[in-house]
Amino acid sequence: MYKIAKILAIILGVVGVVLWVTIARTDDPGSSSTIDIMINLGKYMTILAAIVALLFTVGNLVTHPSKLKKALISIGVFALIVVISYAVSSGTDVDLTKMAERGIETSESASKTVGAGLIAFYILGGLAVLSMVFSGFKKVR
Hints:
The protein is mostly helical. The chain has two domains: 1-63; 65-141. It is built from five helices and no strands. The protein has helices at residues 2-25, 34-63, 65-88, 96-101, 108-140. Helix 1 runs antiparallel to helix 2, helix 2 packs across helix 3 and helix 3 crosses helix 5 (108-140). The mean pLDDT is 84. The chain crosses the membrane at residues 7-24, 44-62, 71-89, 114-137. Keywords: Membrane, Transmembrane, Transmembrane helix.
C-alpha cells in the first residue's frame, strides 16, 4: 500500500511540475486553463493524502491494541475539553444588533460555538506549551 501511494504521489508531483512549467511559459497565465487544472490537482492530492493518512492510522491502530487504547483516551480527553469549553462559553459577549447593522447575520448559538472553539484552542495551546516545558525539564534531569 505504501509503495502504491508513493508511486502515485511521484506521478502527481511530476504532473504538477509539468503544469507549473506550462503556466510559467504562457504569456498570460491568468487566463490559462492550466491554472484550473493545477487547483484541481491540488485538491485531489490533498484528498488522496488525507485518505492515505487515515488508512495508515486505522491500520496501525487495529494492529496495535495498546496504541488504540491511548488513541481512545486522547480522543476522550479532547471531547471532554470541547464539552467543558462549550459549557464555559457564555456566547453573550457580542452585541448581535450591532453585528446585524454591519450586515453580519449571526445567532446566539453561533456566537457561543465560536467562543467555545476559542476557549478550546486556548486550553489545548496551553496544554501543548506545558507539555513542551515539562518535556524539557524531564530531559534536563
